[in-house]
Design goal:
This protein is mainly β. The chain has a single domain (2-91), classed as Domain of unknown function (DUF427) (Metal Binding Protein, Guanine Nucleotide Exchange Factor, Chain A). It is built from no helices and 10 strands. The chain is globular and about 40 Å long. The N and C termini lie close together (5 Å).
Length: 92
């Protein structure tokens, strides 16, 4: 699987976990040179608290386009140390 945004590969891995239609990539597959800080957080009843990261590619910002669960609830342990994408990031 490959995640791309702004014609740039953000993450690539053969080891993704599919949850609710989203591919969760290993955190280590995320290309950190394109990641920037976000203080955005949301909550999911069964996964726990999600934290977000933004993308900066070719001078363009995609705020809060990456999310992860730093401490997922027990039923969501399969996505620990993994990241997922939205906001125009193409996963294929």
């Amino acid at each position: 699987m490959k995640a791309t945004w702004n014609a740039t590969v953000i993450a690539e891995s053969e080891d993704t976990v599919l949850v609710e239609g989203n591919h969760y990539f290993p955190e280590s597959s995320l290309k950190r040179e394109f990641v920037t800080f976000s203080n955005h957080k949301t909550s999911c009843a069964w996964k726990g608290q999600a934290s977000y990261l933004s993308l900066m590619v070719n001078g363009e910002l995609n705020a809060d386009a990456v999310w992860y669960y730093a401490d997922p609830k027990p039923e969501a342990q399969a996505i620990r140390n993994r990241v997922a994408f939205w906001k125009g990031v193409k996963v294929e």
